[in-house]
Amino acid sequence: MKDLIVASHNKGKIEEIGEMLQHLGIKVIGVNDYISMDEVEENALTLEGNAKIKAEFIFDKVKKATLADDTGLFVRALNNEPGVRTARYAGENPTEKDNRVKLLKELEGKDDRSAFFETVLYLIDDNGKEYSVSGICEGNISTQEIGTKGFGYDSIFIPKGEKRTFGELSMEEKNKYSHRAKALNKLNELLVRILDEDRNSK
Q1: What DSSP string runs through the chain?
Q2: How far, in Å, are 156, 157, 168, 174 from residue 150 at the CA level?
Q3: Is-cis flag, bond preceding 82, omega within 30?
Q4: I need a labelling partner for 124 at 20 to 30 A (CA). Which of 68, 69, 116, 164 fits?
Q5: Where are the domains of the chain?
Q6: Across residues 135-162, what is the average pLDDT?
């Protein structure tokens, strides 16, 4: 596995994954360098299902190792909403601010503000074999937006063990708790195992 196509338009995310896998000799490439993802419908009922849809769509087109992810925020007092609709919570094309405002409004008057983030990474290797790993970060939703770092719901999510929101933490601090960092660590371990198996089979 020399190249890994990542189902993302986010340059920061692509660079982050690339840096993490650099020691394995894997070149991480954004999907935009190959195909458009505009026609993909993420209509599964689970994060893994949506990540699988994206990964299989790309692999079918490019026949190279592919990585896709899906992330959800699950708020217990809201029956685990927004869940798979995390990015579209306030409508079909909301701003990140719209989503945060709606979530804070839905939680008004509720005592239980516990929630968790989950990221699922779905990998298809060069041979078409499929794998998935995930990472979870428990925490609580703040009563107001605090902090300007990060993106999405970061300014209203306080990870367990912290008094500050993700929006107040540096990237290094955030990665001590982050669901995405935990999933990427598991991905790294998985790829080391896959590469070892490839070498041993030759």
Answers
A1: --EEEE----HHHHHHHHHHHGGGTPEEEEGGGT---TT-----SSHHHHHHHHHHHHHHHH-S-EEEEEEEEEEGGGTTEEETTGGGTTSSS--HHHHHHHHHHHTTT-S--EEEEEEEEEEE-TTS-EEEEEEEEEEEE-SS----SSSTTGGGEEETT-SS-GGGS-HHHHTTT-HHHHHHHHHHHHHHHHHHHHHHH-
A2: 11, 11, 8, 9
A3: yes
A4: 116
A5: 3-201
A6: 95
Question: For the whole model, what pTM was predicted?
Answer: 0.89
Cα distance between residue 74 and residue 138, in whole Å: 10
CB 119 within 8 A of CB 67: no
Chain segment 53-92, per-residue pLDDT in tens: 999 999 999 999 999 999 999 999 999 999 999 989 999 8
Place of tokens 């020399």: 2
Measured CA to CA in angstroms, residue 198 lies from 122, 131, 150, 193, 201 at distances of 19, 15, 37, 9, 5
The yes or no reply on domain 3-201 and CATH 3.90.950.10 is yes
CA distance 122 to 114: 27
Residues with a catalytic annotation lie at: 70
User: pLDDT digits over 82-112, tens only?
Assistant: 999 998 999 988 999 999 999 999 999 999 9
